[in-house]
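Sample 3 of the quickstart, ligand adenosine-5'-triphosphate:
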Amino acid sequence: MEQKNLYTKLIAQDLHKTFIQGDKKLLVLNGISFEFEQNKSYAIVGVSGSGKSTLMHILGSLDKPDIGEVLFSNKNLFKLKEFEKEKFLNTNMGFVFQFHYLIKELSVIENIILPGIIKGENKKSCLEKAEALLQEVDLKDKMHDYPTTLSGGQQQRVSILRAIFNKPSFLLADEPTGNLDENNAQSVINLILKYKKEFNMGIIICSHDPEIYNKMETVLKLHEGKLG
Ligand SMILES: Nc1ncnc2c1ncn2[C@@H]1O[C@H](COP(=O)(O)OP(=O)(O)OP(=O)(O)O)[C@@H](O)[C@H]1O
Ligand SMILES: [Mg+2]
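Result:
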């Protein structure tokens, strides 16, 4: 069995972020420091506009803070070269967003294996692995279909399979159930929690829904640029 980063932490250090809106400066993150541990689950809650997505993007190094660092297992994500960062993210971090961002020109199974192919894994073994994952979520009969022909809940399950394909150390999910009805939201969250357990994956999830955020071990509130 592959032993992967069992004790990894994702560490936010003194994150500050200001946006310029017209002639106004909007301070969104005002000194956020927190250590997220792998194998734990965290919810980030806060009113709309409080900066949850901004924080998630920075934690996933999809955006840079004005001040502060994000460390992953002592690796400073903002000091990596672009290609190193992409390789790192593909292997160690999974992302799920409110809108699934599946590639509509690729079939369901092609979307799922993409992270494995980018990593350089053999296509045949990727396809076998993806088929097994699809079977688990009752979507095997859809594997050659295109994402636009799937329901919202099915699309989101596919995007989770893609996000966890390389068994990342952390899964960052920004309103992953925001577009789903209650039943689909529950099945999406249960799927995320199942993979957390299976891969010792850290989960950081933003959600407005108490049914979702109360399932996480730690609930953190983002308010006036601080996390508490
Ligand atoms: N690229 C940008 N340029 C200017 N302002 C931005 C930018 N991105 C976000 N903001 C502003 O920063 C604030 C925080 O936005 P963010 O999207 O992080 O909030 P949020 O907590 O995720 O909200 P929601 O719950 O609605 O998703 C908002 O006031 C938003 O208008
Ligand atoms: Mg948001």
